[in-house]
Sequence to fold (331 residues):
Amino acid sequence: MRNKITLLVFSFFIVSIVKAQEKITDDMREMYSKILYANKEPIFKDDIFQYKTVDYIASDHFFPAPPNQIVDQCIRTIKNSGQLITEAYSGSSDLYFKALLSEDVASYLSDEFTLTIKESGLQYENGNKIGLDVKSKTALNLGELKLKVRTEKEIDASQNILGSLKFDLEFLAKYEKVQLSRSDIGEIFKIGSCDFKLVDVFKNKIVLEKLCMDEEEELEIKVINFTGNGQVIQPYSYFELLELKEKNDNINVDGAYIRNEIDLYKIIYDIFLAKPEITFEEFDRLMTVDLLEGLNNATNYTILKSVGNFEGNFMLYSPKYSNKEFQISFD
Fold:
């Protein structure tokens, strides 16, 4: 449900290394400098994307939250149909949990339900325990559910497996929403339990500063970009772009894709903002060891992007999830 972009991961990788090192070496300093500089173009280079404007239909953006009876029914169905199976592959055996999902919960599946195997109480008939290597997780879809049980050791398929598995079913509860515009720059607003500051809105970018401490669950913030007359600026699908390209060879098929969230330290953002044309050599001279080590406590910005410029209002929203745990025993 929540994917992180590569450069974002690299940027926070810097801080984790800084925390673990007493001093940054010259080679490390140069590597970090290159990683941070790579954020300049996605933020300050003018984006050219193909997009369309469509009427705003709430159901195009917001999935219905499943009512409690559907959640309970989903759990009952998984419990009643759940079983463990072993499958041989390349000379070894893997353990899977299988279950069936009914049509009654079909309209709430996939993006609304995620099932995780949290704990193993499994053991072989000889009493040897079967521990988990990592937690297994999958989105639910109509029909057969098949989830690999990622065990610490290879499964001995010659023995019966007994015991239990503890599951966590995560499901959509609601959406947190806030509607803003360029006139709200500098204002503080709340999404969920977290306060944000709207730092800037320029071209097709929104700059946010998160003012709360890190939550247990990271917020997934999305944006709806409205035109002045209330329509929604929306990217073409890849297949729509292919059709457009047949009529106009200048159409950029890559315009179906956009790196729509970038996390960047404020001090690095300010350097790019003051001089968007800064060369790597100029930037690298600013990336001293002291500055990089100071990123440990630096303010961080989140930049959200749209395929079109922000001209009117825009809506920021974040899905909020609840969860229920349950256990299945296997005799």
User: Anything to note?
Assistant: Residues 1-10 have pLDDT under 50 and may be disordered. The first helix runs from residue 6 to 20.
